[in-house]
Write a structure and sequence with these properties.
Layout lengths: L2 H5 L48 E4 L2 H12 L2 E6 L7 E6 L2 E7 L19 E5 L2 H8 L5 E7 L5 E6 L5 E6 L1
Parallel strand pairs: 1-4, 5-8
Antiparallel strand pairs: 2-3, 3-4, 6-7, 7-8
Length: 172
């Protein structure tokens, strides 16, 4: 797929014109000024929408970690590379949430929680039905913080995966 077709080939917008400043030699000015990428009022931005941000966790065993997320938190393994173990990569999904796992042999995530006593999270997962999910896992050893209502109104609980990543599940 070409970049132009991805952004809409029939809208008259050349996808490369927005970034042409990176293709010019230093000191050469553009023929016309372009609007900022943060200016969402222009028609050229109508097709540009960020759909999500996905946390990416380094882990020593992608397959084992993917199985843990599937068995304990209900994620499904949406894709792996290569197709057979040992995996270098896996995409895990549950509803609209996604987590990516990248293999790094011998990796041990540093525990930085003492440096930030207010809390240290690796992913915050907004959801509906947070009480139901909590009830399903409440007696598990990986629950790090029981569900509680926060001062800003959300109900949240925390889990720590086998690699030390902390996920917060929060919602109404």
């Amino acid at each position: 797929m070409s970049t132009t077709s991805h952004l809409g080939a029939n809208d008259g917008y050349n996808a490369f014109s927005r970034f042409s400043c990176f293709l010019r030699p230093p000191g050469v000015q553009a023929e016309r000024e372009t609007t900022s990428l943060t200016d969402t009022s222009t028609a050229t931005h109508a097709e540009i929408r960020i759909k999500s941000a996905v946390p990416t966790f380094l882990v020593p065993d992608v397959a084992g970690t993917a199985r843990w997320y599937s068995e304990h938190l209900g994620f499904r393994i949406a894709g792996t590379f290569p197709k057979q173990e040992p995996y270098a990569y896996a995409s895990l999904q549950r509803d609209a949430a996604e987590i990516m796992l990248l293999s790094l042999r011998g990796y041990e995530k540093p525990d930085l929680s003492a440096r930030r006593p207010e809390g240290l999270w690796d992913a915050y997962i907004r959801m509906r039905g947070v009480h139901g999910l909590y009830e399903a896992v409440r007696d598990e050893s990986f629950v790090q913080m029981p569900i509680k209502r926060q001062p800003y109104g959300d109900w949240e609980f925390e889990v720590r995966d086998p690699n030390g990543y902390v996920l917060v599940f929060g919602g109404e």
